[in-house]
Amino acid sequence: MATSSTIETIETLVRPIVEDRGYExxxxxxxxxxxxxxxxxxVDRPGGITLDECASVSREVAPHLEVADxxxxxxxxxxxxxxxxxxxxxxxxxxxxxxxxxxxRTRDPVDGRRTFRGICRGLDEAGRVVVEDxxxxxxxxLDPDGIQEANLDPEIRF
Length: 158
Known about the structure:
This protein has helices at residues 4-20, 51-68, 91-96; strands at residues 24-33, 36-44, 76-80, 101-110, 113-123, 129-132, 139-142, 147-152. By secondary structure, the chain is α+β, with helices and mostly antiparallel strands. The protein folds into 2 domains: 4-80, GMP Synthetase, Chain A, domain 3; 91-152, SH3 type barrels (Roll).
């Protein structure tokens, strides 16, 4: 499993490269997948990112990672779009996606629950993430440090 210092080192290296190209580094994951170590960069831009743009980011980032060598051993670099269930990682993400449907999972129970689905209402005055239950209108404020995972949760209708 990757250490937080390894993740921070990689992020410090790749974020400026990605942002200098006009893209946003949404998330960075270093995980074992099917017996191999995978460094996955989720990259986006307004209007979405194309496969060719992902390939371009990969070609730009790879040599920098090779020179800096922050990961021990062999790994696979993947660059992709965050998709429709985009992760929400930073406080600004919750401000940016106010009014959108979200799914937030907390590390510890809040009001007896760990999973909250509803409409993102941004941050309250204390900097807590506010999720409004779409059915009841009940708003729950969540400490950002207690969030394990948060994603957009679009309603898909056929």
